[in-house]
Amino acid sequence: MTAQRPSPARMWNYLQGGKDHYQVDRDAGDAMAEANPDMFYLARQVRQFFARTVRWVAAEAGVRQFLDLGCGLPAPVDAPNTCEIAQSVHPAARIVYVDNDKVVLAHARALLTPATDLVKCAYIDSDVREIDAILAEAGRTLDLTEPVGVLMLGILGALEYDQALAVLERVTAAVPSGSYLVVEDGVDTGRVSQAGITRRHQSGVDRYELRTLDQMHGYFEGWELVEPGLVTITAWRPGAVDVGTIRPVDPHGGVARKP
After folding, report:
1. What are the tens digits of pLDDT across the range 85-131?
2. Which of 28, 153, 175, 195 could form a disulfide with 35 if both were Cys (CB 3.0 to 4.6 A apart)?
3. How many CB atoms are located within 10 Å of the residue 227 CB?
4. What is the pLDDT of residue 138?
5. Do the beta carbons of residue 157 and residue 197 sit within 8 Å?
6. Do residues 78 and 112 make contact, with C-beta atoms less than 8 angstroms apart?
7. Which residues on adjacent β-strands are paired with residue 152?
8. Average pLDDT over all residues of the chain
9. Is the pLDDT higher at 200 or at 209?
10. Are 131 and 167 contacting, i.e. CB atoms less than 8 angstroms apart?
11. How far apart are CA 68 and CA 83, in angstroms?
């Protein structure tokens, strides 16, 4: 099987060191890396940020259910998925994955085998713009009267900014006090970051818009950022072994609690 057009999920999987991609996806990723030499490092750091934040929300904040919007493809073995992280902390944790990429759907069907406890883990094939339908369906697996960890990594930049705020407004209204929001997105830090996005668009991958820091702060309206706030993802509570070896990257992210 071959693909005629690069997929954001497959391209990102390639950049993160995964195995689920075609030549067209590798070409798109390489084009971005040619313009922005940090791309491979950046992509892996996004996954590490994801792992740290999910574990923190589960272990430190005590959240036992997660809504992973724009979950993407499985990551390399050194960066486990939401269910693996959350259920390592709380074996009964519940997770709902959401994505609209057909390749992601195929992998989700393989993941959610009959041996999987479907009461704890579900997949919704939907576009995040259909957030009301997603929340209604997610409520079949998650208890939306109890705190939820909402994950939105690299997905809001695929929307117009006003659309992104509208989606976040619906999510904020749907989850109770004590819920947590994890957001990561690309930030326009200058010529190199813009050059990488330009090459992405030229390759045919779905559009993705970099944000300003002010725009990203707007994502957290109605939420309280936890320390260290909205920062470059490598600066969000790095592990002791990482200190001294990491460097800032364009994507920024944060974790916030709904009061």
Report:
1. 999 999 999 999 999 887 777 776 666 654 444 458 888 999 999 99
2. 195
3. 9
4. 96
5. no
6. no
7. 183
8. 87
9. 209
10. yes
11. 10
